[in-house]
Write a structure and sequence with these properties.
By secondary structure, the protein is an alpha+beta fold. The chain contains five helices and eleven strands. The strands form three sheets. Strands 1, 2, 3, 4, 5, 6 and 7 form a seven-stranded antiparallel sheet that branches.
Length: 206
Protein backbone atom coordinates (compact mmCIF):
# COMPACT_ATOMS: atom_id res chain seq x y z
CA UNK A 1 0.00 0.00 0.00
CA UNK A 2 1.43 3.35 -1.04
CA UNK A 3 1.59 6.22 1.49
CA UNK A 4 -1.20 8.06 -0.29
CA UNK A 5 -3.38 4.96 -0.19
CA UNK A 6 -2.76 4.45 3.51
CA UNK A 7 -3.54 8.10 4.16
CA UNK A 8 -6.90 7.66 2.43
CA UNK A 9 -7.49 4.37 4.28
CA UNK A 10 -6.80 6.08 7.60
CA UNK A 11 -9.02 9.05 6.72
CA UNK A 12 -11.96 6.76 6.01
CA UNK A 13 -11.26 4.79 9.19
CA UNK A 14 -11.36 7.96 11.28
CA UNK A 15 -14.78 8.90 9.93
CA UNK A 16 -16.06 5.36 10.45
CA UNK A 17 -14.85 5.47 14.06
CA UNK A 18 -16.54 8.83 14.56
CA UNK A 19 -19.80 7.23 13.44
CA UNK A 20 -19.29 4.26 15.78
CA UNK A 21 -18.57 6.53 18.74
CA UNK A 22 -21.61 8.63 17.96
CA UNK A 23 -23.74 5.48 18.00
CA UNK A 24 -22.22 4.50 21.37
CA UNK A 25 -22.90 7.99 22.66
CA UNK A 26 -26.56 7.77 21.68
CA UNK A 27 -27.19 4.17 22.72
CA UNK A 28 -25.07 3.92 25.88
CA UNK A 29 -24.72 7.62 26.82
CA UNK A 30 -20.95 7.15 26.97
CA UNK A 31 -20.19 10.84 27.54
CA UNK A 32 -22.78 11.28 30.30
CA UNK A 33 -21.37 8.98 33.00
CA UNK A 34 -19.37 10.80 35.70
CA UNK A 35 -16.43 8.40 35.89
CA UNK A 36 -14.67 5.61 34.06
CA UNK A 37 -12.20 2.97 35.18
CA UNK A 38 -10.34 0.26 33.34
CA UNK A 39 -9.19 -3.13 34.60
CA UNK A 40 -6.37 -4.27 32.36
CA UNK A 41 -6.16 -7.68 34.03
CA UNK A 42 -9.77 -8.38 33.08
CA UNK A 43 -9.62 -6.37 29.86
CA UNK A 44 -12.59 -4.16 30.70
CA UNK A 45 -13.52 -0.50 30.72
CA UNK A 46 -16.41 0.54 32.99
CA UNK A 47 -18.36 3.78 32.90
CA UNK A 48 -19.71 4.34 36.40
CA UNK A 49 -22.03 6.46 38.47
CA UNK A 50 -21.81 6.61 42.28
CA UNK A 51 -19.34 3.73 42.14
CA UNK A 52 -21.76 1.51 40.21
CA UNK A 53 -20.85 0.27 36.68
CA UNK A 54 -23.46 1.43 34.17
CA UNK A 55 -21.79 0.55 30.87
CA UNK A 56 -19.10 -2.10 30.39
CA UNK A 57 -16.81 -2.74 27.44
CA UNK A 58 -14.28 -5.45 26.73
CA UNK A 59 -11.23 -3.66 25.39
CA UNK A 60 -7.94 -3.86 23.57
CA UNK A 61 -5.35 -1.19 24.30
CA UNK A 62 -4.28 0.12 20.93
CA UNK A 63 -1.54 2.38 22.25
CA UNK A 64 -0.48 5.19 24.52
CA UNK A 65 0.81 8.71 23.99
CA UNK A 66 3.20 10.59 26.23
CA UNK A 67 2.47 14.30 26.43
CA UNK A 68 5.93 14.99 27.86
CA UNK A 69 7.84 12.77 25.44
CA UNK A 70 5.70 13.49 22.39
CA UNK A 71 5.58 9.85 21.37
CA UNK A 72 3.06 7.16 20.46
CA UNK A 73 3.73 3.58 21.63
CA UNK A 74 1.75 0.68 20.21
CA UNK A 75 0.08 -1.54 22.79
CA UNK A 76 1.81 -4.64 21.46
CA UNK A 77 5.18 -3.00 22.18
CA UNK A 78 4.43 -2.00 25.78
CA UNK A 79 6.01 -4.08 28.54
CA UNK A 80 3.45 -2.80 31.03
CA UNK A 81 0.43 -4.30 29.25
CA UNK A 82 -0.78 -7.89 29.49
CA UNK A 83 -1.66 -10.08 26.48
CA UNK A 84 -5.29 -9.87 27.65
CA UNK A 85 -5.53 -6.36 26.21
CA UNK A 86 -3.07 -6.56 23.31
CA UNK A 87 -3.44 -9.99 21.66
CA UNK A 88 -5.78 -8.82 18.91
CA UNK A 89 -3.34 -6.10 17.87
CA UNK A 90 -1.29 -8.79 16.16
CA UNK A 91 -3.82 -8.51 13.32
CA UNK A 92 -3.08 -4.80 12.95
CA UNK A 93 0.65 -5.36 12.96
CA UNK A 94 0.34 -8.23 10.46
CA UNK A 95 -1.67 -5.99 8.14
CA UNK A 96 1.09 -3.38 8.37
CA UNK A 97 3.74 -5.95 7.53
CA UNK A 98 1.76 -7.30 4.58
CA UNK A 99 1.11 -3.82 3.20
CA UNK A 100 4.54 -2.41 4.13
CA UNK A 101 3.06 0.32 6.35
CA UNK A 102 5.71 1.53 8.77
CA UNK A 103 3.19 3.36 10.96
CA UNK A 104 1.69 0.01 11.89
CA UNK A 105 4.94 -1.87 12.39
CA UNK A 106 7.22 0.61 14.16
CA UNK A 107 6.77 0.24 17.91
CA UNK A 108 7.12 3.96 18.56
CA UNK A 109 6.18 6.99 16.48
CA UNK A 110 6.46 10.76 16.90
CA UNK A 111 3.11 11.92 18.25
CA UNK A 112 0.95 14.85 17.34
CA UNK A 113 -2.61 15.75 18.33
CA UNK A 114 -4.07 13.52 15.60
CA UNK A 115 -1.85 10.43 15.47
CA UNK A 116 -3.36 8.60 18.45
CA UNK A 117 -6.88 8.78 17.10
CA UNK A 118 -5.65 7.97 13.59
CA UNK A 119 -3.91 4.76 14.66
CA UNK A 120 -6.85 3.85 16.90
CA UNK A 121 -9.25 4.33 14.01
CA UNK A 122 -7.19 2.04 11.79
CA UNK A 123 -7.09 -0.59 14.54
CA UNK A 124 -10.83 -0.28 15.08
CA UNK A 125 -11.48 -0.82 11.37
CA UNK A 126 -9.21 -3.83 11.08
CA UNK A 127 -10.51 -5.44 14.29
CA UNK A 128 -14.18 -4.71 13.66
CA UNK A 129 -14.41 -2.77 16.93
CA UNK A 130 -17.65 -1.32 18.29
CA UNK A 131 -16.09 2.01 19.21
CA UNK A 132 -13.12 3.56 20.99
CA UNK A 133 -12.23 5.72 23.96
CA UNK A 134 -9.28 7.85 25.02
CA UNK A 135 -8.50 7.53 28.73
CA UNK A 136 -6.57 10.56 30.03
CA UNK A 137 -3.73 10.18 32.50
CA UNK A 138 -1.48 12.65 34.24
CA UNK A 139 1.04 12.89 31.40
CA UNK A 140 -0.40 10.46 28.89
CA UNK A 141 -3.44 9.10 27.08
CA UNK A 142 -4.44 5.47 26.72
CA UNK A 143 -6.37 4.65 23.55
CA UNK A 144 -8.66 1.62 23.64
CA UNK A 145 -11.15 0.00 21.28
CA UNK A 146 -14.27 -1.91 22.34
CA UNK A 147 -14.46 -5.55 21.32
CA UNK A 148 -17.95 -5.45 22.83
CA UNK A 149 -19.95 -2.88 24.79
CA UNK A 150 -23.27 -2.92 26.64
CA UNK A 151 -25.17 -1.82 29.71
CA UNK A 152 -23.93 -3.37 32.94
CA UNK A 153 -25.94 -5.66 35.18
CA UNK A 154 -25.15 -8.16 37.91
CA UNK A 155 -25.18 -11.08 35.46
CA UNK A 156 -22.84 -9.51 32.92
CA UNK A 157 -19.68 -11.58 32.35
CA UNK A 158 -17.81 -8.27 32.14
CA UNK A 159 -19.08 -6.97 35.48
CA UNK A 160 -16.23 -6.05 37.85
CA UNK A 161 -15.86 -8.67 40.55
CA UNK A 162 -16.02 -7.66 44.19
CA UNK A 163 -13.85 -9.32 46.82
CA UNK A 164 -13.05 -12.39 44.72
CA UNK A 165 -10.63 -15.01 45.97
CA UNK A 166 -8.97 -17.81 44.01
CA UNK A 167 -8.70 -21.40 45.18
CA UNK A 168 -6.42 -23.96 43.55
CA UNK A 169 -9.15 -26.62 43.92
CA UNK A 170 -12.33 -24.64 43.26
CA UNK A 171 -11.10 -21.79 40.99
CA UNK A 172 -12.55 -18.34 41.75
CA UNK A 173 -15.28 -17.43 44.21
CA UNK A 174 -16.47 -14.65 46.46
CA UNK A 175 -14.98 -14.05 49.89
CA UNK A 176 -17.36 -14.71 52.78
CA UNK A 177 -17.55 -15.53 56.50
CA UNK A 178 -18.16 -18.94 58.03
CA UNK A 179 -18.62 -20.21 61.56
CA UNK A 180 -15.63 -21.84 63.27
CA UNK A 181 -17.44 -25.17 63.57
CA UNK A 182 -17.77 -25.35 59.78
CA UNK A 183 -14.08 -24.70 59.35
CA UNK A 184 -13.29 -27.43 61.90
CA UNK A 185 -15.50 -29.97 60.11
CA UNK A 186 -15.93 -28.88 56.46
CA UNK A 187 -17.50 -32.16 55.28
CA UNK A 188 -20.73 -31.54 57.21
CA UNK A 189 -23.78 -30.26 55.34
CA UNK A 190 -24.28 -26.51 55.34
CA UNK A 191 -26.15 -23.82 53.47
CA UNK A 192 -24.90 -20.84 51.57
CA UNK A 193 -26.98 -17.77 50.70
CA UNK A 194 -25.91 -16.80 47.20
CA UNK A 195 -27.14 -13.56 45.63
CA UNK A 196 -28.32 -13.86 42.07
CA UNK A 197 -29.37 -11.24 39.57
CA UNK A 198 -33.02 -12.17 40.18
CA UNK A 199 -32.81 -12.38 43.97
CA UNK A 200 -31.36 -14.69 46.60
CA UNK A 201 -31.51 -18.41 47.01
CA UNK A 202 -30.07 -20.95 49.41
CA UNK A 203 -27.82 -23.69 48.06
CA UNK A 204 -26.64 -26.79 49.83
CA UNK A 205 -23.03 -27.88 50.11
CA UNK A 206 -21.94 -31.22 51.52
Amino acid sequence: MEPEQFSEFQHKAVHELMDLNEMCKKEFRISSWPKWEYDLDRGTLAFTQDGVPKVLASIQVVGTTSTSGGTWLWGWASDSLTPKVTTQLAEVRAFGEAENISELTNAELPDDEYLGWGMTAVAAKLLGAKGAYRCPGKNSFVYVVYSSVGFADDSSPLAPSRNEVECSDHTKGFATYICEHLLANPIQEWFRAEWLATGAQATTNA
